[in-house]
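Researcher: We're teaching a course module on how sequence relates to structure. For the next exercise, students receive a sequence and then see the predicted structure as tokens, so they can try to spot secondary structure elements on their own. Here is the exercise chain.
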Amino acid sequence: MTDTAPKRRYPWLKIALVISLVCNFLALGMIWGIATRTGPAGSLLRASVAALPADERREFRRESGAVWRAARDSTYARTPIREDMIAALSAEEFDAEAFSAALRQAQERLLRVSDQMHDKLLARISAMSLEERRAYAESLQARLGKNHRWHRMRNTETD
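Model: And here is the predicted structure for the students to work with:
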């Protein structure tokens, strides 16, 4: 008896095609994410920090990391916000006030961090000379100009 079924020459080919397709979708997703991240919805603080000279930017990021760590450590040492939120959600009867208080504490922490970062950035910019501030302004304008280009492209598509 002869076997009339065709023999598979490349059984790994289907797997390779699926992997290739998945990689292509991941790449497209990353490109889409980068493209939609820019624009007026982006953070002006992020653009302001990115416009700093490289050494100043690294130092600011170190300082802001320390601010975030201090806020996290002090918040969680004082009150267990996460546990309060979970307890309010898991209770037999939802305690909206407890949940709201936990959210309010988290929001206050973010506001404190934001205020501290604002103050550090302002102090850094205030210490610049006129020439440094002008160079910083050009860098910031260039960064914001890039964002506006993406914004214009998105607006023309929806019009």
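Model: If you want an answer key for the exercise: DSSP finds six helices and no strands in the chain. Residues 96-126 form the longest helix (31 residues).
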